[in-house]
Design goal:
Radius of gyration: 18 Å
Helix content: 25-40%
Oligomer: single chain
Number of helices: 8
Mean pLDDT: 97
Low-confidence stretches: none
Distance between the termini: 43 Å
């Protein structure tokens, strides 16, 4: 496997994934609706809602990293967000099936659990939040990610292709940490995302690790940092902001993340390496 197609290649994560692949010697086909002057590889402008364009764009690829999506339930109508995210993912997986592409990585989201954007906020059923926690979205974006994960699992069952759905938390680049310093010292700000985040460098590593020859060939995986986006210890955060969550399945050490990545560690041999605290003095 030497050629990887990346959808959403001009986006924040897509750009860094392309660079990471190129650094590791892969050939890359960058697919997006717009070209980027940051990418030094073949670029094709593709509308992923047009199946013919998707098949043509993926031709020649050995694997796909599908990151294109409307990234939040804002700026567009609910029906458009849902239909765009679901149809584009179906087209990518169907095209990969038609072309005999054996590996697809899809960008999912922790928003699929429902906490972040819920009109009626609710608490986790238990902590740490692992991949078995119920997905209970109340809006179109989280629902689209749940549907996409089910679609990915269906294609694995039907074709045997290796499909990893990566549930990214808030993706932050090192240069963004300074702007988040006030938020880090204001725990209320990120309560609804369980103070979960992932450094973009670790997100890139997770994408590339998902292309390996894995024993588990279909999985939904939390991809988050090992610590929280807060300067308070995790037990204090839970006591103060989630006192009704009585099902704590283990005790947290220091600022340990509330969202578990144990499955990603087992399946991908991946661990987050970077923290905001490497940049900002606690």
């Amino acid at each position: 496997m030497r050629t990887v197609a990346v959808t959403g290649a001009s986006g924040k994560l897509g750009t860094e994934v392309v660079k990471g692949l190129l650094d590791q010697g892969y050939q890359v086909i960058a697919l997006d609706e717009r070209r980027s002057d940051q990418l030094r590889c073949k670029q094709i402008r593709v509308n992923l809602n047009d199946f013919g364009q998707v098949v043509a764009g993926l031709a020649g690829a050995d694997a796909v990293i599908h990151l294109a999506a409307i990234p939040a339930p804002i700026d567009y109508t609910n029906s458009y967000i849902f239909s765009n995210n679901v149809l584009s993912t179906y087209h990518v997986l169907e095209a990969a099936s038609v072309l005999g592409i054996g590996k697809v990585v899809t960008g999912s989201s922790e928003s699929s659990y429902g906490f972040c954007w819920a009109p009626s906020p609710f608490d986790p059923h238990y902590v740490p939040v692992d991949e078995e926690h119920p997905q209970l979205p109340q809006e179109c974006y989280g629902l689209s990610k749940v549907v996409n994960e089910l679609t990915a699992s269906m294609f694995h069952r039907r074709t045997g292709m290796q499909v990893m759905s990566l549930r990214f938390s808030l993706i932050l680049a090192p240069q963004q940490y300074a702007a988040f310093e006030k938020d880090i010292r204001n725990p209320e700000r990120h309560k609804r995302i369980l103070w979960s985040y992932i450094d973009i460098r670790d997100a890139v590593r997770a994408c590339i690790a998902s292309l390996g020859d894995l024993e588990v060939r279909s999985a939904d995986l939390n991809i988050t940092s090992r610590d929280t986006l807060s300067d308070l210890d995790t037990e204090e955060l839970l006591d103060r902001y989630y006192p009704e969550v009585k099902d704590r399945r283990r005790r947290f050490t220091g600022r340990e993340a509330i969202v578990s990545t144990e499955r990603a560690q087992r399946v991908l041999s991946w661990r987050a390496e970077h923290s905001w605290s490497d940049t900002i003095q606690r």
